[in-house]
Amino acid sequence: MNISRNPITCEEHTIPTKLDDTKGILDFINRNSGKRIVVVQGLGFVGAVMSLVCANAIAEEYAVIGVDLANENTYWKIKSINDGIFPLIADDPKIAEFFDNAKAKGNFLATYDPVAYQYADVIIVDINLDVQKQSHGKGGLKDFDVNLNGFKEAIQSIGRNCRDDVLVLVETTVPPGTCDQVVKPIIEEELVKRELTLKNYRLGHSYERVMPGPQYIDSIREFPRVYAGVTETSADAVEEFLKTIIDISKCDLTRLEHTNATEMAKVLENSYRAMNIAFAVEWSRFAEEAGVDLYAMVNAIRARPTHANLMYPGIGVGGYCLTKDPLLASWARKNHFGSTSDLEMSIYGVSVNDQMPRFAYKRLVQVFGDVSDKKVTFLGVSYRGDVGDTRFTPVEPLVEMVRETGAEIVLHDPFVSYWEEQKCNVESDLNAVLDSTTDLIVVSAGHSQYKLESTIDKLMALNTALIYDTIGLFDKEQLLILQSKHKVSVLGRGDLK
Prior knowledge:
Shape: globular
Number of helices: 16
Structural class: alpha/beta
CATH class of the largest domain: Alpha Beta
Distance between the termini: 55 Å
Helix content: 25-40%
CATH architecture of the largest domain: 3-Layer(aba) Sandwich
């Protein structure tokens, strides 16, 4: 019996053995008669929210079907959506509003059956494409590769089922050249096998800029979009569709000349940010050695308009984009375009960021000494504030290094109840983790809850404790309050001894 566990509720669902949902799909389409069908491939952190945006489209009434695999990692999402519970937690009230609207209209269905592609007018590809790399958090980047097999299978599933007049819109971050050299040949081969015409289908790329957190919905609906098609006709179709779901009164649509350009733009955009972070974290080490406050320096430098985007340091880079996108670009340069050269600076930036959790650990031991006999409480396990995404979180290698000392580990996160990668439960009640037995508190994610006055009060109510702020969460006044009773260290603050 195969079980899929909901990491939010910890509820377990039995995966059906007969993967046929044709009747459910047809019933849904009949209930939404007259509406164009949008099928979203992938119900992860992008696809699930993109489905909501389409179900609440600005300029057209769509019927939306989200498709994902029926396996232990994904089936629970399908079950949750169809049971009326959205499968992620984030600090954006619009998610609940949009989901309630979709439930009221009855225009959002989740399924595991690829037969849904047969009825689609538009198919949006929002699936994962991973980089296999030999490093994450405990050392520098040693090697990496990109395996497109799973992605190709997903595209093949579309090609085997879709109509010949469908618009396929790839949102997934892919190596430059993927739509032209991978997606297009697969779809066309499958259409030819079914003796369908190639002249009517449309293929384009428009990358998402999703920002999980308080602006989750707006980062899709009200943020500038870049798009292209493999032909001008395809680009026109992408533009027409985007105008129905994007609020063009609040943001621009920018057409580039080819999908190669949009694919490159996405990984360039994320590579730039990853490099910016790597620059900051490398200098944080220098600041600590020199005994100065890097945050104060950054604030002073940001006053210059040309340097306003200089980053603060932190525990490292996590999430699904910045940890891999520079590597996708370098891989594509060699494998899709025949270069013999790497994107050396981009690769180095990833390596610097991957080393940061180890540096954070070394700093912890340097400041607080041996932690093997201590009870260590981590405040936050997600990769960024106010989201429940633990994929490639830099907190994970830091937790593992502390655990290896023999220390007792306590985990808290208001957005994560079950940490899938670590296969463990996470406490959501601060009162339950901050008690008289707490020795060391590691602030490891920038959740709004941790910045509240009530949290400072809870920390001050503890007996003398050690506090290690790895992300520069506390402001100047909060630090002074905490320092009056506790020993406090902040990553990048060499002035705090």
